[in-house]
Amino acid sequence: MPFLTDDGGPASDDDSSSAGPRSSPVSPPAATDLVAARSQLLDRNAGGKRLDAPALRQVLVDLHDFWLTTKGAEIGIRPDSGFAIVAVGGLGRQELLPYSDLDLILLHDDVDHQRLSDVADGLWYPLWDAHIKLDHSVRTIPQALQVASQDMSAALGLLEARHVAGDAALTDLLITGVRRQWRTDIRGRFPELVDHVRDRWKRSGDIAHRAEPDLKNGRGGLRDVQMLDALAIAQLTDGMGHLRPDSPGAGLHVAYNRLLDIRTELHRIAGRPREQLRAQDADEIGAALRIGDRFDLARTISDSARTISYSVDVGLRTASNALPRRGLSKLRRSPIRRPIDEGVVEHAGEVVLARNAIPSKDPGLILRVAAASARTGLPISASTLSRLADYAPELREPWPQEALSDLLVLLSTGPHMVAPIEALDRTGLWGRLLPEWGAVRDLPPRDAIHTWTVDRHLVETAAIAGTMTTRVSRPDLLVLGALLHDLGKGRGADHSVVGAELATQIGNRVGLWPQDVHLLSEMVRHHLLLPVTATRRDLDDPQTAQDVVDKLGGSPVLLELLAALAEADSLATGPGVWGDWKASLIGDLVRRCMRLMDGEDLAAPSPLTQHEVSLAEAGGVSVELIPTDGAHTFAVTMVAPDSPGLLSKMAGVLALNSLRCHAANARDGAGSAVNTFVVVPSFGGPPDAGLLRQQLLQAIDGGLDVLNRLDAKERESPLPTAGPTVGSESDRPTVAVPALFAIAPPRILWLDTYDDDGSVILELRAGDRLGLLARVAAVIERAGATIAWARVSTLGGTVVDTFNVTMTDDSPAARAAMEAAILDVVPPPTPVSETDGGAEDAGKAGVPIG
């Protein structure tokens, strides 16, 4: 065919494409020759070297540029002619796909109508006659600018315009004018752009978790990167510049090109314009791109789409904060920096590092930032993530207790944990904390019932488990087990066995006690035991429950953890996996197993140390504050003559000084109350022990009402309001202070003791709150009950507070009244909307790409 050279490119005098006319006339090929040349390039049976996807796109661009240039010269579209051929869409970006439409504009300088009609007919009719799909328009520069100002799609298309033939100065005027207009009007058009993008996502779904994704229009697709380019033209973002090349997905540019190559092969294999990747084409596309089978292809698509999605979130947020101010808004003060945690502050609606934070000297800063983001609902700044990726060192093994605590806080925030973990993962920080994560990152499930990739399924399971933490006595192990239960997948062996070994490895690394490491490993090893047994064996057979008890070593704690994990795992798998039938079977099995197990030992107070005994015998009021092994954790010992309400006053004094209580033991000895607390300052350092003693004396004497002061402190620092990621300045959050979301509903348990003094044990499981111990203790004491001793544990975002109380009226009505009063002071569960997790995508996935 004379229209192609030997290597498949367009023939010309200098064997190169040109955007302008040749110095010597070249007889333009007919449009039918253009079609024939395209067909020859795509003919699978044709001889010659098969072009890879990038080369094919470039040859198609050169082919069409050559035809348009020579045809334009024939009909009079030359320099200084007042005409220009302008390409938009794929040809404009020089990313023309095999069966993409031609998007062309015939630009003119208000020429004579008859002359314009002759030129337009000479250009369009040959393409129409050859049945080439054409999206065309004829405009002057003012007309094009007017259309761009009124139509968002047209504006985005014109931002990608490229001169092909004719009067280059005319095209330059158009491109310059469109970009200047876009930058000038971006403040008013930004909400329209956001609505335009969200409507597209709603129609096309999320690419990363779709069985048959729309590569062009879905969330995380090609259109999103083109939108980011438009924001970069408006000087609101840096386009593709914020992700590191060594991060998962290798940065935005690589992710975009991967999806573009896959879309190119989809066109070539399907033999038609198609944006949705169908199951029947997946294996052939994977082989053509040397990726592998359809599962390997699905993993590549998920990785690329999630990288793009994260970049879009950052880009829209950055653009929203960078919108130019006008009018009185110019006089508004810059956003202030509000402390959230040690080294972590809120600024302009994002979690950022404090000015005095030194990532290179603070290995736990990564988890502290992530926990702060999950607690407040505010996103992590891209610059903060980049700085942490560059300078934060590895955590030593075993992790400090503070790092483990921050991980548990992160995992206990339910659906609020998803965004921070995704941000850490896309920037390579999550894999630094959990190197084992790489084997399951973007790993597609092999079962059509699964909605998510394996890594996202683990996060979703942990998020759902975070709403169940008050059901179990070890909420920390529940969320850790949920996060790790399928970590053994993708390694070519039984994932439960491999996962148990990995759980042991990770448990030792993060600093769990040996018995907790064993319990975590057993959770992962047996996470399928209850659902498999309940649905496949006869529950009326006594041996069924006995076998389960034997496998679990008779541990009721492990049994209750596995019951909660089974529900969370099923709910995170896909729609219809968890239902009344399955719930009733597992519940029945658990009840039968519990009857065969011995009950747990009741909680008991820890004995006084010799030093604490000496403090009690000395009498008076004393306060000691000493550092612990953690850089930001302190032990406080308070001793005072025993009196009603003393525990509430001691805990209240700590809360007034922004000291969060992670653990506490309240006991008595020698007529004094000896209470020890493990505390962490919300930010900054702790107050002097002398100040704490002075405030405690005031509280005991009645000069300081700690509960009223706590209420006033909360009113002065309301909970954060995490506004939308995009929108007007009025939508941006103006307040961000330390706060924990209570995801799981609070629960109160009553347990009879073995003592003969009539005391009972009250166990509270609830979300944490600054000053919660002081408020709960005050409620118990106001009800006329005496607290003999108390043990307090904060496990992630859930407190497990145990009180040994003696009630003057231990009737059901009195207990119900006390429960109601306690529930009034604990954090209510935060409503979880579909946008917090993955509910909006439930039911949309099957076997990945097939």
UniProtKB/TrEMBL annotation:
Protein's job: Modifies, by uridylylation and deuridylylation, the PII regulatory proteins (GlnB and homologs), in response to the nitrogen status of the cell that GlnD senses through the glutamine level. Under low glutamine levels, catalyzes the conversion of the PII proteins and UTP to PII-UMP and PPi, while under higher glutamine levels, GlnD hydrolyzes PII-UMP to PII and UMP (deuridylylation). Thus, controls uridylylation state and activity of the PII proteins, and plays an important role in the regulation of nitrogen metabolism.
As recorded in Swiss-Prot or TrEMBL, the protein's gene is named glnD
Gene Ontology biological process: regulation of nitrogen utilization
Spans annotated as Disordered: 1-30, 827-850
User: What's the domain remark here?
Assistant: Has four distinct domains: an N-terminal nucleotidyltransferase (NT) domain responsible for UTase activity, a central HD domain that encodes UR activity, and two C-terminal ACT domains that seem to have a role in glutamine sensing.
Q: Per UniProt, which keywords does this protein have?
A: Hydrolase, Magnesium, Multifunctional enzyme, Nucleotidyltransferase, Repeat, Transferase
* Top-level division of the source organism's lineage: Bacteria
InterPro entries referenced in this protein's UniProt entry, alphabetically: ACT-like_dom_sf, ACT_dom, HD/PDEase_dom, HD_domain, NT_sf, PII_UdlTrfase/GS_AdlTrfase, UTase/UR
Cofactor needs: Mg(2+)
Q: What is this protein called?
A: Bifunctional uridylyltransferase/uridylyl-removing enzyme
List, for all copies, the residue spans of the domain called HD: 454-568
| Provenance organism | Williamsia sterculiae
Q: Does the keyword Protein biosynthesis apply?
A: no
Activity regulation field: Uridylyltransferase (UTase) activity is inhibited by glutamine, while glutamine activates uridylyl-removing (UR) activity.
Q: Which reaction does it catalyse?
A: [protein-PII]-L-tyrosine + UTP = [protein-PII]-uridylyl-L-tyrosine + diphosphate; [protein-PII]-uridylyl-L-tyrosine + H2O = [protein-PII]-L-tyrosine + UMP + H(+)
